[in-house]
Amino acid sequence: MTIPAEKPAKPFRYLHAANRWLGRCHVALATTILVVVCLVGAQLLIMIFGRLLDQPLTYRIYLIGAIVTVLAATPVILYAQTLLRSQRAARYQLKLMTRELAIALHNAQDINNARTAQFANMSHELRTPMNAIVGFSDILRNERFGPMQNARYLEFASDINDSALHLLDLINNLLDLAKLEAGGFDMGDATPVEVEDALELAIRLLRPLSAQQEVTVATRIDTPGIHIVAIERMLRQILINLLSNAIKFTPPKGCVTVSLQHNSAGDVEIAVSDTGIGMSAADIRAAFMPFGQVNSMLSRKHAGTGLGLPLAKAMAELNHGRLDLRSMPGEGTIVTLTFPALTLGRTEPTRPDELADRGEEVL
User: Fold this and answer.
1) Does domain 187-350 have CATH number 3.40.1440.60?
2) Contacts of 95 (CB under 8 A, 6+ apart)
3) Disulfide-capable partner of 256 in 49, 137, 188, 246 (CB 3.0 to 4.6 Å)?
C-alpha cells in the first residue's frame, strides 16, 4: 500500500519546482544561478539599509558587497549542491532497494507457502506406508501368526519396527510443524482442559522410558483442578515432548519434577525441572531451532528429531501460552509453561485478580 505524499503549501510550491529544476542542471550551472540570486539579494539589502539609515551609498560599497557575497556564498552553495545531489542519489538507490526487497519478500513468502503445502502433502504420502511398515513389523515381532524358526528374523523385525516408529514420529512432527507454519490449526477446536489429567497421562505414557533411564519422576500439584482453554491433543504433545527431553537428558538416579500452580499474576504455570546435564546459552539457541541438537555425550546416546522443543514452543504460543527455558551446564534445566487460567462458567481465560475485583471465586 502506497501512502500519497503530502502536497507542500502553496507559497512553497514554486520553491519546490525551482529546486527540482536546479537538480536537473549541472552543479556548476546551479551554483552560478544561486550565487547570482544571492548577489542580487545582497545588493538590494545594501540599498534598503542605506535608505533606512539615510547614508549615501557609493559604487565602492556596492562593489565590496558584491565581492564579499560571491566569496562567501560560492563555496557554501557549491558544497550544499554537492551534498543535496548525493543525498538525492542515495535516496533514489534506497527506494530501488526497498522495492527490490519488497518483491523478494513477497516471492519468498510465496515460495515458503508453496513449500509448506508441498511438504504437508508429502508427509501425508509418507505416513501411509510407514503405518503399514509399523503394523506388519509389529505382527512379525510378536509372532501373531505363528512362531518363527529363526530367532534372527525376530531381531530384524524388531529393528524394522523401531526404525519405522522413529521415522513415523519424525514425519508426524514435520507435518505438525508444517501445519503450524501454514496456520492449519483452528483454535475453534480448543476446549476447557484439566491440566492435572493431561500431566498424569503424559507421565503414565513415559513411565517405561523413565524406568529404562532409571530416572524418578515426581509431581507437585499446589492447586488441584486447574483448567485452561487449549487444544487437548496439543497440550498432551507439549507435556510429552518436555518430559521425554527431561528424562532422556537426565543421568541415571536423577530426578525430574513436574509442578503445577498459579503464579503471582494469576496465570497457570507448569514447570518441568530436571537434574540433568543442563545447557549453555548457545545450546539453548540451538535447541529452539528446528532440527537443532544439543552437542553433548548424553544427547548422542538418544535418537531425536530435534523438533520436540520448537514444536512445544510453537504449540504453546498457538494456545495463547508461553514457554520459557532456564538452564546452566551441570545444573539441570527448568522449562516453564504459562497459560491464562480458566474460570467457572466462562470459555475464555480470565485472571484471578480480575475476578477478585468483581468478588467472584477463582477455580
Assistant:
1) no
2) none
3) 246
